[in-house]
TrEMBL record:
InterPro entries, per database record: Multihaem_cyt_sf (IPR036280), Multiheme_Cytochr_ET (IPR051829)
Source organism: Thermosulfurimonas marina
Name listed for the protein in its UniProt record: Cytochrome C
Coiled coil region boundaries: none
Gene3D superfamilies: Hydroxylamine Oxidoreductase, Chain A, domain 1 (1.10.780.10), Hydroxylamine Oxidoreductase, Chain A, domain 2 (1.20.850.10)
Single annotated GO MF: oxidoreductase activity
Organism ancestry: Bacteria, Pseudomonadati, Thermodesulfobacteriota, Thermodesulfobacteria, Thermodesulfobacteriales
Keywords: Signal
């Protein structure tokens, strides 16, 4: 009788525990019984997911696959799969730039020159840019067998909201060469404050310093858009001096012809939402960001900081335009020859150019210019200056010296 009370409590726990904790200890499905032997990690992940209470494997993968003989019949989930339960989030996501990741990928004119692992194999650009299962994307012969979409942030098979709210969820794609937002944020005061508070065990809602999602996904909005866009360009530009530098950049992107007319590539810019094509569109995105910053800072401070970042981009564009015109002038003199006869290099060809001077120009645009203005907006002065602006100035000096040498060799022929 001494231990009777404990025995009763233990039996109650065994009988009612699953209901009290919200977990139903149901017999695993046939899918789980099989995959517990083949892919046990996936089964464990799914079983700890909140979705385990309401979904089965068939909810996302269908019922056609029943044995090892018909594995190819298992459906791979897409945005449409998630949309059945998460219509609001899917609609937001599909109206933003992440959903258009493949559009930007296929805009690269040398995509056909890339080895399959880079595109279909998702071991290069295709690893992140396989976002967005649009009809156009699926029709591409370079498109991978499956798109990531929701799974990129809510990774399989736990599909955790908590995971997607942490900045590390963004890290894999937003780091490195031309978009080191992770490095910029994590070493900024914003990032440092957030990470210190997390180490101290402070709840996510109370941590100082914004994370990626605070600014780019306010209130869980899956649209994810910014004022400048990836290319840091807007059309038109009221500042006429700045606009002239922008014209040089747009010509080097082959969005404008040498005589200043729009090419068909402007349609790709529109489709991928990689630039802002009206003042109203740009201003709407800027005002949205101002409101987010205003949650922690006074509006005068907010406007001044964003303005200084704009001016960093302006300064970078001046240096970029000067370098572009130096290289284009070499083509006008016949020192550099482009198959299409256009004196302006195509910066979207990236490293697929035989000229060292154009290699430097592409690095200047895709790496240093990006870091100069992105670092400014991510509140990381060291990144903006030493990894961006300083490298742009250094590369401009190298381009000038290379151009002089090329002209001398050409004249000596």
């Amino acid at each position: 009788m001494k231990y009777a009370r404990y025995v009763v409590l233990w039996l109650l726990f065994l009988g009612l525990g699953p209901f009290l904790t919200g977990k139903l200890w149901a017999r695993p499905s046939k899918c789980e019984e099989c995959h517990a032997k083949i892919t046990p990690g996936i089964v464990k992940q799914f079983q700890r997911s909140k979705m385990y209470k309401t979904l089965t494997c068939a909810s996302c993968h269908g019922k056609s696959h029943q044995s090892e003989a018909d594995v190819d019949k298992a459906k791979l989930p897409t945005i449409e799969t998630c949309k059945r339960c998460h219509a609001k989030q899917a609609k937001q996501y599909m109206s933003g730039k992440h959903f258009l990741g493949w559009v930007a990928m296929e805009a690269m004119p040398t995509i056909h020159m890339q080895p399959d692992p880079v595109t279909k194999g998702r071991k290069g650009c295709g690893g992140c840019h396989s976002l967005g299962a649009t009809k156009e994307a699926k029709a591409s012969k370079y498109y991978p067998r499956y798109a990531m979409d929701c799974q990129n942030c809510h990774t399989r098979h736990t599909f955790s909201v908590k995971e997607a709210r942490e900045p590390e969820a963004c890290m894999t794609c937003h780091m490195g060469f031309d978009h080191p937002q992770w490095e910029m944020w994590s070493t900024s005061k914003h990032g440092a404050a957030y990470q210190i508070d997390r180490l101290l065990g402070i709840p996510i809602e109370e941590r100082r310093g914004p994370r990626c999602q605070t600014c780019h996904m306010p209130n869980g909005d899956h649209r994810v858009m910014t004022a400048w866009g990836f290319l840091g360009l807007r059309v038109p530009e009221d500042d006429q001096e700045w606009w002239q530098w922008r014209v040089s950049i747009l010509k080097a992107l082959h969005v404008l012809t040498p005589d200043g007319k729009f090419t068909d590539r402007i349609n790709v810019v529109k489709a991928g939402k990689v630039a802002r094509l009206t003042k109203e569109e740009w201003q709407a995105e800027r005002q949205r960001m101002e409101k987010i910053c205003h949650q922690c800072h006074n509006m005068n401070f907010v406007k001044e900081q964003l303005h200084q970042a704009d001016m960093m981009l302006r300064a970078a564009d001046q240096v970029m335009a000067e370098a572009i015109e130096i290289v284009a002038d070499l083509a006008r003199k016949g020192i550099i020859k482009h198959p299409d006869g256009n004196p302006y290099p195509d910066l979207l060809r990236f490293y697929d150019t035989p000229y060292e001077i154009e290699q430097k120009l592409y690095m200047m645009f895709m790496e240093y210019r990006m870091r100069a203005f992105q670092g400014a907006f991510h509140m990381n002065p060291d990144y903006s200056h030493w990894y961006g602006w300083a490298e742009m100035k250094k590369t401009l000096a190298e381009i000038k010296e290379l151009a002089r040498e090329m002209e001398e060799r050409h004249a000596a022929k």
